[in-house]
TrEMBL record:
Compositional bias of kind Acidic residues: 196-228
Family recorded in the similarity comment: Belongs to the nucleosome assembly protein (NAP) family.
Gene3D superfamilies attached to this UniProt entry: 1.20.5.1500, Nucleosome assembly protein (3.30.1120.90)
Domain of life: Eukaryota
Coiled coil: 28-59
Biased composition (Basic and acidic residues): 1-14
UniProt-annotated stretches for the region Disordered: 1-23, 169-235
A GO term, aspect molecular function: histone binding
Protein name, entry field: Nap1-related protein 2
Gene assigned in the entry: NRP2_1
Amino acid sequence: MVADKGKKLKTTEKGEEENNSETIDEKLVLSIEKLQEIQDELEKINEEASDKVLEVEQKYNEIRGPVYDKRNEIIKSIPDFWLTAFLSHPALSELLTEDDQKIFKHLSSLEVEDFKDVKSGYSITFHFNPNPYFEDTKLTKTFTYADDEGATKITATSIKWKEGMGIQNGVNHEKKGNKRPATEDSFFSWFSETPEKDDLDDIHDEEADEEDFDEEEPGEEVNEDMDLDVNNLRA
């Protein structure tokens, strides 16, 4: 009899444990479902906030435009303004070869323009005075965000070099104490290289070591630095 009572007690305890476990699991599932509902609500609010921010950004882009135009007119009266600005910049200064610097003496203005829908992309346009190097008076590179995954379509002006002029193939040399090598590729190779950028490229760039940098395509380094400093170039 004692043994039977002990057996019944253990069976009862086991049943209670299973019931408690089921109750805990149900509560956990309900909590997770409620948490997801709240997260969905937050995401909806964030999307609405992003739309409002974009509306404000578009509005003030239009207001800034005439101010940038006035600033450009003053800049045109300052000799070698853009050459000096690039050479004074810690990242962009490394992108200009000696020959590029000669061409930059003819750069009259630089324009960074967001698309009307700022989520769609932007363009960077370099305006040049008549010069002995190429026929173009302006060179443009356009970055169009192709999808929500971060892929970017890149198009650029094909430079019409004058006879005897053009991009020289440069050689990368290691710069002491610097992970990235100093480049001798012409800045203007940036207009002839239009790679498709997506998340895989971004991941590759982040994980690249010194050997990876030696394998970069001409113009890729310029793309990275110009993208990083696009806001500093607005004028």
